[in-house]
TrEMBL record:
Top-level taxonomy: Eukaryota, Viridiplantae, Streptophyta, Embryophyta, Tracheophyta
Species whose genome carries this gene: Rhodamnia argentea
Protein name: 3-phosphoinositide-dependent protein kinase 1-like
Family: Belongs to the protein kinase superfamily. AGC Ser/Thr protein kinase family. PDPK1 subfamily.
Domain Protein kinase stretches: 48-315
Region Disordered, residue ranges: 336-376
Extent of Low complexity compositional bias: 364-376
Sorted UniProt keywords: ATP-binding, Kinase, Nucleotide-binding, Serine/threonine-protein kinase, Transferase
InterPro entries: Kinase-like_dom_sf, PDK1-typ_PH, PDPK1, PH-like_dom_sf, Prot_kinase_dom, Ser/Thr_kinase_AS
Pfam families for this protein: PH_3, Pkinase
CDD domains xref list: STKc_PDK1 (cd05581)
Organism domain of life: Eukaryota
SMART domains in alphabetical order: S_TKc
Length: 493
């Protein structure tokens, strides 16, 4: 384990070998060293009380974390070192850390400090207790035009700052637009950020994303047509995503949503937009302009810059100088369902022993056969690399991707069988025999909760119910509530 940590640290090292020049001839500010505003601390995960899980990515989780000695609450992004190394994501992680360190805007989440242990990297980010904008859209069904105007204006304000620095976010969507307790917008998740060649952001030589900037990144429903056609990234990419997000705020669904990712891409390429009747003419016109096939014609990307976007009739009456002083829309609170089970109050909270060196000590404490508790500690280590093993790819169609995956026990009356439960964006929900690598069950998908619903009994136990069958599962990672949220979130899109 020590050798693994040293190997990773050498790859993560933030010292560069080049001075202020770029290997590809660009003008991005390069530096031999970097003085971080957000320090690299020597904390351990045991210094924090971990709460509910805010979100899950391919190699990371974001968890509510309270520092025990100060009581300060953070959104702790926990990243799996082994997976980052295996998937060659080290440069992206370094770039996100360096970029976040230099951003200073009320509409962007702040990075406070970082630390690491044997298994994981940690970034302590500003905690946005109001949740995701996506959740507000889901709870309200759709937003009023006044609410959408308020949120869109705050996104525009933050995007103007980001673009003026020469950065492209590349993953603007309602899930990455977080809300403060008061209800103001903050842009999060800079894992796909791309510095342009004339960026004023300092980037280390060994911390850069794809230089061609035409690699497919982002989320299918918000990806612009030029990216699907492998054109280089531009500021217009974010403005297209803004148009999709504004459409979703006003309608409750993304403009190009279809039965599969492939069909979604076809609608994007065909620019197949259908406006609901309740959209105002001003809203339709702005969205229509933001979803222009030609990136430079999108308001904010042309020669008139952001003035063309801010002066659009949709934003009439917006006080651009005092956005953060305005009263935000009232937040719709999450409905709490009480089932009478005491464990439900824990929802998706974590114990510090589930991640980092706490798990390492438990597993390495016994060199003999692993006990059930030791196996559980190993399984619950963040983003177990087994979950992302290429062997599961054989169960996916071209273009299909895994949204959630876990080794779970399928509970029967007399026996329990370990299976790999897989949820994809198709959407598809299957369980696979992990030893024989054969599909043991295909749960018929339905967007109708009457035909497919999830009942959570405890943090580790849940049932998937269909009209013909009720299947019980036990997830050692205690992700029952995450399974429920993932499936219901896919049903609502």
């Amino acid at each position: 384990m020590l050798a693994m940590e040293k190997e990773f640290d050498s790859k993560l090292k933030i010292q560069g070998n080049n001075s202020n020049n770029s290997s590809n001839g660009g003008n991005v500010q390069r530096s031999k060293s970097f003085a971080f505003r957000a320090p690299q601390e020597s904390f351990t995960i045991q210094d924090f009380e971990l709460g509910k899980i805010y979100g899950v990515g391919s190699y990371s989780k974001v968890v509510r974390a309270k520092k025990k000695d100060t009581g300060m609450v953070y959104a702790l992004k926990i990243m799996d070192k082994k997976f980052i190394t295996k998937e060659n994501k080290t440069a992206y992680v370094k770039l996100e850390r360096i970029v976040l360190d230099q951003l200073d805007h009320p509409g962007i989440v702040r990075l406070y400090f970082t630390f690491q242990d044997t298994f994981s990297l940690y970034m302590a980010l500003e905690s946005c207790e109001g949740g995701e904008l996506f959740d507000q859209i889901t709870r309200k069904g759709r937003l009023s035009e006044d609410e959408a105007r308020f949120y869109a204006a705050e996104v525009v304000d933050a995007l103007e700052y980001i673009h003026n620095l020469g950065l492209i976010h590349r993953d603007i969507k309602p899930e990455n637009l977080l809300l403060t307790n008061e209800g103001h917008i903050k842009i999060a998740d800079f894992g796909s950020v791309k510095p342009m060649q004339d960026s004023s952001i300092t980037v280390l030589p060994n911390a850069a994303s794809d230089d061609k900037a035409c690699t497919f990144v982002g989320t299918a429903a918000y990806v612009p047509p030029e990216v699907l056609n492998s054109s280089p990234a531009t500021f217009g990419n974010d403005l297209w995503a803004l148009g999709c997000t504004l459409y979703q705020m006003l309608s409750g669904t993304s403009p190009f949503k279809d039965a599969s990712e492939w069909l979604t891409f076809q609608r994007i390429l065909a620019r197949d937009i259908r406006f609901p009747e309740h959209f105002s003419d001003k809203a339709k016109d702005l969205i229509d302009r933001l979803l222009d096939i030609e990136p430079t014609r999108r308001p904010g990307a042309g020669p008139d810059g952001y003035d063309a976007l801010k002066m659009h009739p949709f934003f009439t009456g917006t006080d651009w100088q005092n956005l953060r002083k305005q009263i935000p829309p009232k937040l719709a609170l999450e409905q709490v369902v009480h089932s009478g089970d005491a464990d439900d109050s824990q929802e998706s909270s974590w114990n510090p022993s589930h991640v980092g060196d706490g798990a390492l000590r438990q597993v390495e404490g016994n060199s003999g056969p692993a006990s059930s508790s030791e196996s559980s500690a190993h399984i619950t280590r963040l983003a177990s690399i087994d979950s992302f093993d290429s062997k599961w790819q054989q169960f996916l169609d071209p273009g299909e991707s895994v949204l959630m995956i876990s080794t779970v026990k399928k509970i029967r009356k007399l026996t329990n069988k370990k299976v790999q439960l897989i949820l994809t964006n198709k959407p598809k929900l299957i369980y696979v025999d992990p030893s024989k690598l054969v599909v043991k069950g295909n749960i018929i998908w339905s967007n109708n909760p009457n035909d497919l619903n999830i009942q959570v009994a405890s943090p580790s136990s849940f049932k998937i119910c269909t009209p013909k069958k009720v299947m019980s599962f036990e997830d050692a990672k205690q992700r029952a509530w995450q399974w429920k949220k993932a499936i219901e979130g896919l049903q609502s899109r």
